[in-house]
């Protein structure tokens, strides 16, 4: 996956330093990154696209500052990762209003950058997975993980249970498992694979999904499900 990154800072020297950090990290870790630099929040907003997966913003810029820029971007994109960089800790709480992923103080060493950047790359790879392509009634669907509540095996077919309707196709659950995020999807039965993000509630024998459909838990999978559920939500909420 190629990861598009935007750096927005009115200090060109610091912009270039960050770009060098990203290029060094990409080379050392075999990661494909494309970097675009912007000297103001207005310039970034004028050229902004959803292709950017990580945006690194200086907070104290003339005109539109980094927080204001980030809040405008959040209106268009809730998934993009935001970093805030500044020489002062005074803006920390404001940064979190824009759902900051990281808040780092300048000057920044490469070692500190690389440690935080590694976590951002991991997050991007989990959130921006390749869509699942499904053929259904002579139509082709590109499904994102968040579209899927759970997947059911029915004979030699798979049924994708979505928020608005089910889609049936010919495939195997084993094959689909390899294409989905291992942290979000868990097998709870030989015939069911569920999206942990879409669980409403559960008990020992079944899981109730957000659309109120009930999915049975195999007694052999109960422990595995609970471990996966705890790990997933512990990570998100912690």
TrEMBL record:
It holds the Pfam family Response_reg. SUPFAM superfamilies: CheY-like. Gene3D superfamilies: 3.40.50.2300, LytTr DNA-binding domain. The keyword Phosphoprotein applies. Residues 4-121 form the Response regulatory domain. One of its GO terms (molecular function) is phosphorelay response regulator activity. It comes from the Bacteria. The keyword Phosphoprotein applies. The modification 4-aspartylphosphate is found at residue 58. Keywords: Phosphoprotein. Residues 132-231 form the HTH LytTR-type domain. May play the central regulatory role in sporulation. It may be an element of the effector pathway responsible for the activation of sporulation genes in response to nutritional stress. Spo0A may act in concert with spo0H (a sigma factor) to control the expression of some genes that are critical to the sporulation process. This is Stage 0 sporulation protein A homolog.
């Amino acid at each position: 996956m190629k990861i598009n990154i935007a750096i927005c800072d009115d200090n060109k020297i610091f912009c270039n330093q960050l770009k060098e950090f990203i290029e060094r990290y990409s080379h050392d870790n075999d990661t494909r990154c494309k970097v675009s630099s912007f000297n103001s929040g207005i310039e970034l907003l004028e050229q902004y696209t959803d292709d950017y997966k990580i945006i690194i913003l200086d907070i104290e810029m003339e005109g539109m500052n980094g927080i204001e820029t980030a809040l405008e971007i959040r209106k268009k994109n809730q998934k993009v990762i935001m970093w805030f960089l500044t020489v002062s800790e005074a803006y920390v709480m404001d940064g979190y209003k824009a759902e900051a992923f990281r808040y780092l103080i300048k000057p920044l060493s490469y070692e500190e950058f690389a440690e935080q950047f590694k976590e951002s790359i991991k997050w991007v790879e989990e959130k921006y997975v390749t869509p699942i392509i499904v053929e259904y009634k002579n139509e082709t669907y590109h499904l994102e993980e968040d579209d899927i509540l759970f997947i059911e095996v029915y004979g030699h077919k798979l049924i994708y249970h979505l928020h608005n309707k089910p889609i049936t196709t010919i495939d195997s659950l084993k094959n689909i498992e390899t294409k989905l995020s291992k942290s979000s999807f868990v097998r709870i039965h030989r015939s069911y694979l569920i999206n942990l993000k879409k669980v409403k509630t559960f008990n020992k024998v079944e899981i109730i999904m957000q659309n109120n459909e009930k999915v049975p838990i195999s007694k052999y999978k109960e422990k595995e499900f609970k471990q996966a559920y705890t790990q997933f939500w512990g990570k998100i909420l912690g």
